[in-house]
Every structure is written in structure tokens, then in C-alpha cells.
Amino acid sequence: MEIFIVSIVIVAFAFVGLGFNIFFRKDGKFPETEVGTNRHMRELGIRCTRCDEMRNYRELKRKSNKKVNYSTLKIDLNLNNY
Fold first, then answer.
1. Is 80 helix (H, G, I), strand (E, B) or coil?
2. Which long-range contacts (CB under 8 A, 24 or more apart) does 55-61 make?
3. Tens digit of each residue's pLDDT, the chain (82 residues)
4. Are 23 and 16 contacting, i.e. CB atoms less than 8 angstroms apart?
5. Alpha-carbon torsion angle 38, 51, 46, 29, nearest 10
6. How far apart are CA 37 and CA 50, in angstroms?
7. Buried b (16+ CB within 10 A) or exposed e, 7-41
């Protein structure tokens, strides 16, 4: 029984320690970690990789204006060409 109580106390300290900034700040908001919506990262010029890839894909598709038939698309796995 003593081990159970000690483990509960350790987990409680860990819970409070990990959530200290959230529990004891006045605004109590969770810090924004998403790259695409974080204002500070946008100011530094850091963009979301997924959004950047989608933007590049749209630009490439608009420039090429070609239809791709994905059912007949083949991938060359021969690495001797490089």
C-alpha cells in the first residue's frame, strides 16, 4: 500500500510540474506549438512543411498545366543512374 501512495504522489508532482505554466498563469492558455499558426515562427520566416509542400505542388501544377495519370505512373528504383 505504501508503494501505491508513493507512486500517486510522484505522478501528482509530475503532473503539476509539467503543467506549471498552464495552471498558474493568469491567461492559462496552452502555448502554441503548431508551426503554421505560431506568430513568432512566422516572424522568423519558418513555415509549416506540409503547407509549403502543398503551395509548391499547386504552383508546379499551375505552371505545367498537365494531367497526371496516377494509375499508369511508374517509379524507377534503379539507383545506378545517379
1. helix
2. none
3. 899 999 999 999 999 888 877 777 767 666 677 777 788 888 888 888 888 888 888 888 777 766 667 777 676 666 665 5
4. yes
5. 10
6. 13
7. eeeeeeeeeeeeeeeeeeeeeeeeeeeeeeeeeeb
The 3-class secondary structure across 13-73, one letter per residue, is: HHHHHHCHHHHHCCCCCCCCCCCCCCHHHHHCCCCCHHHHHHHHHHHHHHHHCCCCCHHHC
Helix (H) or strand (E) holding 10: helix 2-18
Residues in the chain: 82
